[in-house]
Specification:
Elements: E1 8-17, H1 21-37, E2 43-47, E3 61-62, H2 65-70, H3 74-77, E4 83-84, E5 87-93, E6 98-101, E7 116-117, H4 120-133, E8 137-140, E9 144-149, E10 155-160, E11 163-165, E12 171-176, E13 179-188, H5 195-203, E14 215-224, E15 234-240, E16 249-256, E17 260-268, H6 278-285, H7 289-295, E18 299-309, E19 320-321, E20 324-326, H8 328-331, H9 342-361, H10 370-377, H11 380-387, H12 391-398, H13 400-416, H14 458-464, E21 477-479, H15 484-493, H16 497-500, E22 506-509, E23 518-521, H17 531-535, E24 541-543
Parallel strand pairs: 1-2, 1-13, 2-8, 5-15, 13-20
Antiparallel strand pairs: 3-7, 4-7, 5-6, 9-10, 10-13, 11-12, 14-17, 14-18, 15-16, 16-17, 19-20, 21-24, 22-23
Helix pairs in contact: 1-4, 1-9, 9-10, 12-13
Length: 557
């Protein structure tokens, strides 16, 4: 498209796609380095959400290691890490009861004392303010929809701010062609399974030699609860019911702020049963007495979902390519057993900024920032990922109970023995899409109807995410072959898109006789979790960016 459309161009030293913790940390560090040297550096940050933080969703228990490197005096500066962890629990759930596991038996990596319960969206809003105060140009509501390459094949920049294409693909009356933002280096920090990082991974063969990417889906609600059940600083994680042992996943429950409880549920997307609905498992989970007691008398005030990078060390691709780098979740820096990645994301942004700043000062541009990769390999975040490298593959191979026990044993070994593991380095065998089983081999799951007190339906939930899309634009969920959902996915897999999507985007509709199935995409409901792009067994769905500003508007997730 960029070859056929004339656009204005804006030139920067560094262009950053994504105002998450990695992108904002990179922007801030670039400006800090320039200020310390009495130099100038121009930095632009593009954010597809309507504001910084609008598309940010995380648990979140924050390890302050990353922000402490960026702003050693973050407490005095008023960073919104408001609730220190005071109580740490790990609970095994069964259908009828629960059992607390002793925290002293958990590896140190699993402990949360010294960490903070917070809203990552609000932390990003605060980081955005710090970035702008340093002179960073932050552009919310500007989706980076297309990569721009120079004559040598290096990433030159991105196209952002295309508006007014109607649902037929024609230019509407309010059409805006967007602009090209060019940089000496372009940082891609657009989160999990981003559309540009997916393209760049393929173009530059970044995943060559790495294991397949692995993901989970994380669903989260925020409740405001009465004093009687509120325990500020409580962090509780669970495994077990309602998931079967062969289906990986677990939950989190965090008490923080103004009587808020973050309650969330994670399902590893390598599950086999195509009849499983992560959303409905989450709703069922909240009815367990161990969870319901903390929500009693409370009110659900927010809902959202997002994919979680779970491949860890073995799935991290090459981080650099001509003209740019991958940051944070775009590279897959989540530590799965810790259920944490924001501290690693911030560290990755800082390391990329340091490499790019030195390169620009040396007169370089649009080459390979190999220094960033070298810094990562030598960093504490790489060491942390190396320590946790086997946890996910062990769970996949041995199931939740035995795998969890073996995973804890392995974490103890790698923590105490300098990274040594009796398992060596295990690997991920196949993609999450390829893990999906055939519908005929599994029984359909009948989920209880929502009670409207603890459990809810998808559309009521999507309403709480404040999701909005201009309905006159082309659907941003593209089918490579429109026939596949009905001709292949429905007979083979029961068309699992209608179940794995947490927002009711996909439906199979029938006529009055219950015949002639039709696949319908309600893209207006999309909360940008990317699960469809990951889990579709035919890999027929491609998630792309809608118009800037569209999607969820999370207030404090």
């Amino acid at each position: 498209m960029s070859e056929q459309v004339e656009r204005e161009a804006m030139e920067y030293d560094v262009v950053i796609v994504g105002a998450g913790p990695s992108g904002l940390s990179a922007a801030i560090r670039l400006k800090q380095l320039a200020a310390a040297a009495g130099a100038e550096i121009t930095v632009a940050v593009l954010e597809k959400g309507s504001e910084v933080g609008a598309h940010i969703l995380s648990g979140a228990v924050i390890d302050p290691k990353g922000i402490s490197e960026l702003f050693p005096d973050w407490k005095a500066m008023g960073a919104p890490l408001e609730t220190p962890v005071t109580e740490d629990k790990f609970v095994l759930l069964g259908p009828q009861g629960s059992a607390s596991l002793p925290m002293f038996a958990m590896p140190g990596l699993m402990h949360n004392h010294g960490n903070y319960i917070a809203s990552l969206a609000n932390i990003c809003r605060w980081l955005g303010q710090q970035a702008e105060a340093l002179g960073v140009e932050v552009y919310p509501g500007m989706a980076a929809s297309e990569a721009v390459f120079d004559e040598a094949g290096a990433l030159k920049g991105v196209v952002a701010g295309v508006f007014g294409i109607d649902k037929t693909g024609a230019k509407g009356p309010d059409y805006q062609p967007g602009i090209e933002l060019h940089g000496k280096y372009v940082f891609i920090g657009e989160g999990v399974r981003g559309s540009l990082s997916k393209q760049l991974r393929a173009k530059y063969s970044l995943a060559e030699g790495a294991d397949p990417e692995k993901y989970g889906i994380g669903l989260k609600e925020i409740w405001q609860v009465p004093d009687a059940v509120f325990r500020p600083g409580l962090v509780q994680h669970t495994v077990g019911w309602p998931l079967e042992d062969s289906t990986g996943g677990g939950s989190f429950l965090y008490h923080f702020g103004d009587n808020y409880v973050s309650v969330g549920f994670v399902v590893h997307l390598n599950y086999k049963n195509p009849w499983l609905s992560p959303f409905d498992e989450f709703q069922r989970f909240k009815t367990h007495p161990e969870i319901a007691k903390y929500l009693a008398g409370g009110k659900r005030i927010a809902y959202g979902a997002r994919a979680i990078s779970e491949g860890g060390l073995q799935s991290v691709p090459r981080l650099y390519f001509p003209g740019g780098v991958l940051l944070g979740d775009s590279a897959g820096f989540v530590n799965v057993p810790r259920i944490k990645g924001s501290h690693n994301a911030m560290k990755s942004g800082m390391m990329a900024a340091e490499a790019a700043y030195a390169a620009i000062q040396a007169g370089r541009a649009r080459d390979d920032l190999v220094e960033y990769e070298a810094a990562y390999q030598a960093s504490w975040m790489c060491k942390e990922l190396h320590t946790a490298r086997n946890f996910k593959p062990i769970l996949t191979k041995f199931g939740t109970l035995l795998g969890g026990a073996l995973g804890m044993f392995d974490l103890w070994c790698t923590s105490l023995l300098g990274g040594f593991s009796f398992f060596g380095t295990m690997h991920h065998g196949k993609s999450d899409a390829d893990s999906t089983g055939l519908a005929k081999d599994y029984k359909p799951i009948v989920y209880p109807k929502p009670d409207g007190v603890l459990s809810f339906d998808k559309l009521t939930s999507v309403f709480l995410s404040n999701t909005n899309h201009d309905e006159n634009q082309p659907a941003h969920l593209k089918l490579s072959d429109p026939a596949v959902p009905i001709s292949i996915n429905l007979p083979k897999f029961g068309e699992p898109a209608r179940l794995y999507c947490p927002a009711g985007v996909y439906e199979v509709l029938y006529d009055d006789k219950g015949e002639n199935p039709k696949f319908q995409i309600n893209f207006q409901n999309c909360v940008h979790c990317k699960t469809c792009d990951i889990k579709d067994p035919s890999q027929n769905i491609n998630w792309t960016t809608p118009q800037g500003g569209d999607g969820p508007n999370y207030p404090n997730m």
